[in-house]
Amino acid sequence: MHIEIDEISKLFGATAALHPVSLSLPSGALVALLGPSGSGKTTLLRILGGLEFPTAGRVLFDGQDATGLTVQERRAGFVFQSYALFRHMTVFDNIAYGLNARPRGSRPPAAEIARRVTRLLELIQLPDIGSRFPSQLSGGQRQRVALARALAIEPRMLLLDEPFGALDAKVRKELRQGLRDIHDETGLTTIFVTHDQEEAMELADLVVVMSMGRIEQIGKPADIRARPATQFVRDFISA
Amino acid sequence: MSETRTFTFRPATEETPVVRWLLIGLAVLGIAILVAAPLFVVFAEALAKGVWTAVQSLGNRDALSAIKLTLMIAAISVPLNAAFGIAAAWFITKFDFRGKAFLITLIDLPFSVSPVVAGLCIVLMFGANSLVGGWLVAQGYPIVFALPGIVLATMFVTFPFVARELIPVMIEQGRAEEEAALTLGASGWRTFWTVTLPNIRWALLYGVLLCNARAMGEFGAVAVVSGKIRGQTATMPITIEMLYNEYLSIAAFSMAAVLTALALVTLLLKTALELRHADELAATRRH
Fold first, then answer.
1. SS3 for A85?
2. Which of A112, A116, B215, B223 could bridge across to A108 with cysteines, CB 3.0–4.6 Å?
3. Domain locations along chain A
4. What pLDDT is recorded for position B211?
5. A3-75+155-238 falls under which CATH superfamily?
6. Helices A139-152 and A110-123: crossing angle, nearest 10°?
7. ipTM score here?
């Protein structure tokens, strides 16, 4: 799905988290929102997911105005920074949650839900953990379960907030490839937030560098490396 | 010839045996004097003239009416306060708004206001001489010196228990799980029942138990609004006081023993639930 951000701004009280920003993300792209903390990247991601609403501006999905769509209507697969798995539910129930939450008319039968959960557990290469609780999983496993849970609702896009933030370096590298694979397999427009320039450059097709609520540069990783548009970008990617 | 030397290490957080036993002994002594002894005395006094006398003293119409009234007050005010407490905690912890600190202070107010003052406020608001109360009495629905007044006073005094128990737990858990449920397509109502409520159920249970204990035991506020009419508006604590003032100590202590037993039953219930769900508690506490 093509995502168009049209002059979006966001104020929290008197402080501007986002100055008007515009951005066009082609369908099927793997996009990194890169910037230091306080750059507005997470706010932008949450606006796309419908968890925050912009003070001004529009969001367009495939050319249709989606600004007023509720979080449920957006159908965005969202992976939270701390994963936000439901701690009192098994991994199976976590992944099945979105399907069970559908209105009776469009809810798949229990057997179909079980089949889909099993397939997702295979996709994230953890076929045997369905009956465990989140507290019994490692950080990397939790992240993959969160990804499977987001994919279960057949989302129109995938939004990830610092998906590798809480993991050690080795697991991080593995999961990066995992995300790349899942993106290539599903073809979903995928946007992830990161403050790690190496991660953004290595994983994304398109990198959006942000600072202080503004977009500093948009481009392919190689272009940004070769031609940093501003002093900030030059400093940030060489750090 | 090598000499083997053994070292004994003490963990940094552990004290020497002497200090340990001294501290434990002090704690046990404190509990014995302050908690166990009074409990024992209540039951001993009640049974001083034998079990039969104690049971007989509870068998009359007024005593039974007091027990029934107290249970009824708890049955009305505890569920209502649980619902209000959940609503208040939900509102305070899941939304940002102006005046949040003020609302928290307001919830705490019943803890800082003397129950007698709270009772007087209700008499002034709803008494026969007030505007509202006068009208209600004329319609045949008296508030003060009747069940509604006692329930109102009890609810005022016990209002903070559930909310106070829930707010820190809900702050610690944050909003991420609720947000996740919403992005997965769940409605706000469904999110509350399937995510929020299961996460707070233990804190809720503690809050309800504390609220219940206080609702059954409240004296000051109820004493003002109830009018202490024997067999009609005298709750168990008030009946105990009246009996004691009349030197009917067996009757007073028997009633006190029943009230204490009710509290002990709720505590046992809590412990039983904790034991039964120990695994689940341990699994869900840390994420």
1. coil
2. A112
3. 3-75+155-238, 88-153
4. 92
5. P-loop containing nucleotide triphosphate hydrolases (3.40.50.300)
6. 140
7. 0.91
